[in-house]
Write a structure and sequence with these properties.
By secondary structure, the chain is of the alpha+beta class. 33% of the residues lie in helices and 18% in strands.
Length: 304
């Protein structure tokens, strides 16, 4: 069997007859889990997609969770639009008005698909420009970023160095400041505080302050990725967990690895395991009495 015509109409209405990923009209209802793999004809397994995104996602199992997340986010946007009487349930959405509703719903979705030939810097620049554009189009709206990655696997099956660093150091250590929430293959994270809407004019990735040049922003570009080396924290240094100063770990790599109770881990993973949630570890550890996040902040100020 396939989806019934009644169910297809229902899910199309919930999406305002638009693709749940790109929000373009003219959609078909897609099985998230294919029938041949036991997927059902229930609404929970249905996602309205345009032809482009149907072809892009296809039967790829690694995309299923993300399709559901983006579908549910879009359903909430449209539900709020209908609830406030701005849209009849069967009426196609006026694209000129969608921005207002996204803001009143509280968030705007950003999506990027990293292709196999993209390196770290290319992907970082694209993500940064997407966040900039979202702030320009909908100032102050909570930004929810969906990141998907094609390929970029190492021999062990994990992500290669570029994509691991993109998801950890770049996303969690830098771009997370300017968004409210991120869904990516390695994790789903919430910003522990309000997102920063004062987004710099350009992104420059480097290792020294000389790459900063005057642009159209008081903070013309972004400093290098946060590492122990950048902060002047040496291998062997003892870091103290601020909420409970009896908890300490030792730096074993200048690329942000520490040892705690015989295990090699990261500060963010430690903070998340101890406190729960999705936290940036640099906000919870200190070195020689100084919070690591404050060391980074003072470094950024010295570049301006």
């Amino acid at each position: 069997m396939a989806f019934s015509e009644k169910l297809k109409l229902e899910v199309k209405k919930k999406a305002a007859f638009r693709c749940v990923i790109c929000h373009e009209p003219f959609v078909e209802v897609h099985h998230i889990v294919p029938k041949k793999e036991g997927g059902t004809d229930a609404a929970d397994n249905a996602a309205p997609l345009c032809a482009t995104h149907h072809d892009l996602f296809g039967d790829n199992p690694s995309k299923r969770k993300q399709i559901r997340e983006m579908r549910d986010h879009w359903y909430r946007v449209i539900e709020s639009y209908v609830r406030d009487g701005k849209l009849e349930p069967i009426q196609p959405l006026d694209r000129r008005e969608i921005g207002t509703r996204v803001r009143s719903c509280g968030s705007i979705a950003i999506y990027h698909y990293v292709f196999e030939d993209e390196d770290f810097e290319t992907s970082a620049q694209i993500l940064f420009k997407l966040v900039q554009a979202a702030q320009k189009q909908q100032p102050g709206a909570n930004r929810v970023l969906y990141l998907d990655i094609e390929g970029h696997r190492n021999k062990q099956g994990g992500y290669d160095h570029d994509m691991y660093e993109l998801q950890t150091e770049f996303m969690l250590g830098l771009l997370m400041n300017y968004i409210s929430e991120v869904y990516m293959p390695l994790n789903h994270c919430l910003n522990s505080g309000p997102q920063d809407d004062d987004i710099p004019g350009t992104l420059a990735i480097g290792a020294a302050p000389s790459y900063r040049t005057a642009k159209n922003d008081l903070r013309s570009s972004i400093a290098p990725r946060t590492t122990f080396k950048l902060l002047g924290v040496p291998i062997g240094a003892e870091l103290v967990f601020m909420p409970d100063q009896s908890i300490k770990c030792t730096v074993v790599s200048l690329k942000n690895q520490v040892e705690y109770e015989g295990l090699i881990t990261t500060l963010s993973r430690m903070a998340n395991n101890i406190l729960g949630g999705h936290l940036n570890g640099f906000n919870y550890f200190m070195y020689k009495g100084q919070k690591l996040a404050d060391l980074r902040r003072r470094l950024d100020e010295s570049y301006q």
